[in-house]
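Why does residue order matter? Because the sequence determines the fold. Keep that principle in mind as you read this record.
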Amino acid sequence: MLTISIIIPVYKVEAYIEECLASVVAQSDAKANIECIIVDDCSPDGSMDIVRRFVDNYQGAVQFRLLRHEVNRGLSAARNTGIDAATGDYLLFVDSDDYLSADCLSTLVSGFDLCPGADVVQANNLWGVGLKSLWYHTSRPYVLTGGQACVEAILFDRIPIMAWNKLVNRQFVLSHQLYFIEGIIHEDIPWTYQLLSEVSTVVVLPQVTYYYRHVTTSITQDKVANLVKRLRSFQIIIDHAMNLKQVRPTGMLLYVFPALLRDKHLIYQVACPEGAKQAMRDVEKQLFATAKTLKRPIMLLFFLTICRPMSHIYRIRFVRSHIQNIKKVVGKFELMIDRLVYKS
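Structure:
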């Protein structure tokens, strides 16, 4: 029988962790053996007290394993610890403030009926305020073949960029050294792009199996405090994109650009430290150099909107509301260029 390793990093989630664990043990019809690896990243609140009490009182088929970091190392490191400790055939990452549908694992496992031995099985999720938004809309399951098709699916929001809600072949992860980059924000972006650029087959299912609880803050100071780290993270992600060997990096670059526009708009709105402004200038230079290296005139023009005075266009509500659709239009033009001009 198939064995699935569920990896849950824990840090400051005492309000949500019990619901998350309850959703894991509810997977009684999964037709798989389940191990649940919980990684305590030195959570300073009562999260792990709740975890230990839950596990001590649990009697069932799920095999729990509790691991602990000696110092706080971040989400990427916690997931990497889980990868190294896992013994299952497939991995499933779950964020500890989210939860699974009651039929999550049975639905994901059913994806192998469509494509036995698939590298990845991806299902749909609900997210946003009130958990009312579907990530993608499809009425039927289908199979994506080849890295380029999978990466294009991310660009056009047919597959979530997030690591969670994917059954991923563990041996594939280990053989391709698919570990999360530690010390950055948005670590899911380079990991998922590299994963999907290397895989042979991905099964995409229409069913909702994951509930993403978007826990955020509206405090501008918190956003500014993380701004430099976020921008430096984007520099690492752009470098990582250029090192992808199986597919062109265009998709990843276009994916991060709307977030950079939002950060540039934030710099205009509030008083930011000089370090943040310099980090933004560094990312801008990197984007332009990358577009030039790739010989992408349309993408270069798109990136120029991050600079003054063109970046003021982001103050227009319509542009802010439709930036993702604008990104997709640029992406379609770039794919046309790939197929008509640059494809050998």
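The radius of gyration is 20 Å.
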